[in-house]
Design brief:
51% of the residues lie in helices and 15% in strands. The chain is of the alpha+beta class.
Length: 599
């Protein structure tokens, strides 16, 4: 029979338990130090425990869309708003419908309410429109009446007659008039819109030769708008004063409500420029992703980079290619968000590759907010914030107090049971519970600033339930050790032989609990996810504590006489466990052999 190899461990044995204990203690110290270093010593609380802000959004009727407010669009809006708020790092926000056209948004305390209001109220209708003409953002002054009397009137009339004669002469000779040939910013709006209708809106008019060849059909020729409408647009442009916030808001609202095929008058974001924009050339639905980045090469500061899908990339390349051949300002395209011109860059060549950027004096926060809004898509409806109220935490505080009292009572009963039944082993269980509590608390605190985790009432319930799950793992291991002792083995072999059997049971039990928590987290929304998240986290920590603390600690204690000799208060007394001493046969003297003859 081959001799066993030197240093071979028994199944489930642990050669150096001191190192394993030191490892988990170092991890606890690191987490605690990180918690204090981050400046957060308490978990972030949800709106039911800390209070917060509640917004009520009311859907507005859409021009030309009488049936836009319907359950489908409302549910879609709820999903988009929820993703936007989560993009701010708020995981405990509540977004739900109320009635036919209202949405309630509850945001926990600690979130920038102004920033959140902008996120939830922004429709994020993105469009790319060609610039037809522009002017300074202030209101254009009307020409002052002449003060020179009848002589000035006669002189003006004479000048007009001379101009008319000169125009007739030019028409007869075929030479263009000076006003028509001048390429200035203040060119007639009618001509600009006609030119733009003819060749600057491939997405609306589908006049691109490539599109015509691909579709195999002749693109319809757009009908120029009446000159009266163009004059009305010019009149609106002259009367518009973008230097005031109220007038900008009114102009942007009117531009956002316009049809994509209609020209609009809009203000630039900084209020310094007002522009007449042609029909929508590229819809914002072609944008698939948006990121806020800092431009270090071009010196533009914070910008928002856009990525188009295949269809949007082709349209964008066609539009920019056509605009690049035009003089200023017709070589500009306006990036319009909810009727406001965010940026109006000029184009010198066709922009391909399916990417574009939005610049315009963004800060890091504003660029991140815009990218967040564009990434999650536009709302199918427009909303007004009709109420904004502050939610107090009085009711949640009372419920939390009652929950903590219930948890303390339950923990006290568990401790009484452990001490009464397991005696000395109760110290191992209590020490393991303390380690689990420290790990759970520090991780919850660190998850607040890291991923926006907020502790709400259901999450507290999940933590209380985890006490029973953790205690159950200790009980399974203790009973396996006791079973080995009942079979007549001493403590040290019992600790090592009982571990593999207990380990399988603990892993299966924790796997079932974690699977239930994962399914609950996926299929539910709102506060119930807090319960599922906490339950799953504490279940994983239970495995860590049992493997890296409870088992090594038992290995060390098995070497101590108090436990190894089965002290009555150790919880491992063989007599109390029902172990009977082995039966010893009475010694008998050997009888003399019987002679067969005598028999």
């Amino acid at each position: 029979m081959a001799a066993p190899k030197k240093g071979r461990r028994s199944p489930g044995g642990q050669g150096r338990p001191g190192r394993v204990l030191a490892l988990i203690l170092i991890a606890m110290a690191a987490l605690t130090g990180g918690m204090f270093a981050s400046g957060h010593t308490t978990p972030r609380l949800g709106i039911d425990l800390a209070g917060g802000t509640s917004f009520t959004l009311e859907a507005k009727n859409q021009p030309g869309r009488p049936n836009a407010i319907n359950p489908t669009n409302m549910n879609t809006a709820v999903g988009i708003i929820d993703r936007r708020v989560n993009g701010l790092g708020v995981t405990e926000a509540e977004v739900q419908t109320q009635g036919d056209k209202h949405i309630i948004v509850n945001i926990p305390k600690g979130t920038n309410a102004k920033q959140a209001r902008q996120q939830v109220g922004t429709t994020a209708q993105l469009a790319f429109r060609p610039v037809l003409t522009g002017a300074p953002g202030v209101k254009t002054p009307e020409p002052a009446p002449s003060a020179s009397g009848d002589k000035a009137d006669k002189a003006d009339k004479g000048k007009q007659d001379d101009k008319s004669k000169q125009d007739d002469k030019n028409k007869a000779s075929g030479s263009p008039s000076p006003s028509a040939s001048a390429s200035t910013q203040g060119r007639p709006v009618t001509d600009a819109l006609k030119a733009d209708k003819a060749d600057a809106t491939p997405s609306a008019a589908a006049s691109s030769d490539k599109d015509t060849k691909q579709d195999g059909k002749k693109a319809p020729t757009p009908t120029p708008a009446p000159a009266g409408d163009m004059a009305a647009l010019q009149k609106k442009l002259d009367a518009l004063d973008c230097s005031t916030k109220e007038s900008r808001a009114n102009a942007n609202e009117a531009a956002a409500a316009a049809k994509p095929s209609d020209p609009v008058v809009a203000c630039r974001k900084d209020g310094q420029v007002k522009e007449i924009l042609g029909p929508v050339a590229v819809e914002g639905t072609g944008v698939t992703d948006a990121d806020a980045v800092f431009d270090t090469q071009g010196g533009k500061g914070w910008i928002v980079q856009l990525k188009f899908n295949s269809s949007g990339a082709k349209k964008f390349a066609d539009v920019t290619g056509q605009l690049a051949t035009k003089p200023a300002p017709q070589n500009q395209f306006a990036i319009v968000l909810d009727g406001e011109v965010v940026s109006d860059p000029s184009v010198s060549t066709s922009i391909g590759g399916g990417q574009a950027e939005i610049s315009g004096g963004f800060t890091q926060q504003s660029a991140t907010d815009l990218a967040n809004v564009l990434s999650y898509g536009a709302l199918p409806l427009s909303f007004d914030v009709v109420t904004e109220t502050t939610v107090t935490a009085a009711l949640g505080g009372e419920q939390l107090r009652a929950g903590l009292i219930a948890g303390a009572i339950g923990l006290a009963l568990v401790i009484v049971y452990l001490v009464a039944y397991y005696r000395g082993l109760a110290l191992v269980a209590l020490a393991s519970l303390a380690v689990s509590a420290v790990l759970t608390y520090t991780i919850m605190v660190l998850l607040g600033p890291a991923i926006g985790f907020a502790l709400n009432l259901p999450a507290v319930c999940g933590a209380i339930v985890a006490i029973g799950i953790t205690a159950d793992s200790f009980i399974v291991y203790f009973e396996r050790i006791r079973d080995e002792i009942r079979e007549g083995r001493s403590l040290r072999p019992s600790v090592e032989r009982g571990w593999p059997r207990a380990r399988r049971t603990i892993l299966v039990s924790d796997f079932v609990s974690f699977l239930a928590a994962a399914v609950l987290f996926v299929v539910t929304v709102g506060k119930v996810q807090g319960f599922a998240f906490t339950l799953g986290l504490t279940t994983l920590l239970d495995v860590v504590v049992v493997f890296f603390f409870t088992k090594p600690l038992m290995t060390l204690l098995a070497r101590r006489p108090f436990f190894a000799n089965g002290h009555p208060w150790s919880g491992l007394d063989p007599t109390r466990l029902g172990v009977k001493p082995p039966l010893r046969a009475s010694r008998r003297r050997p009888s003399a052999p019987v002679d067969p003859k005598e028999a």
